[in-house]
N-acetylmuramoyl-L-alanine amidase
Amino acid sequence: MGETKGGDADRRIGRRALLIGGAAAAVGTAVLAREELAHLWWRLPGVEKPRVAGAVDFRGAQWVAASSANWRRADRPDDYAVDRVVVHVTQGSFKSAVKVFQDPGHGAAAHYIVRKDGHITQMIRELDVAFHAGNREYNERSVGIEHEGFVESASSFTDAMYEASARLTAGICGRYGIPVDRAHIIGHVEVPGTDHTDPGPHWDWDRYLKLVRRARTA
């Protein structure tokens, strides 16, 4: 499920002071790297996209907010291009996943959770960087989708779950121009540096990609 506790150092920007209109931004004597400043241009007044409380990016999803400690505010895809979908498995129940993503001490959360019956809950806006992959670069470039269940249990992955998740992924791919293939729709296990194994050997990738492609053309 998501990352290991403590995230992947994404929070370091959130803890820094940013001075816009001044000559520098710093914490103590450290100066923000030029690359990081380039990704924060949207914090200038009047640049950031408008937000509506409780809004979702996938029609039909239920909004339940994750703890703000488990994600970083951004303005994707303007500051970070989105070119991946990362498939996760919760290793527990839907309720337990929601609970830990709302826990500020957990240090991780995904954008979405798909329940066994196909219900979709969104906990972080796609605009923002969720701490889900255990790799900062992949967090910045991807949308993370958790699926209720266990990697060792084939029965976790129901028809309703596959169908709902495929529609969700198809929508994400359409929004960001992501190709529907295994290079761009990946498992958590494929993220560089991760020690996770999800979605595991029982996740049917051939079936899933066929469903995503069908949903994209529907």
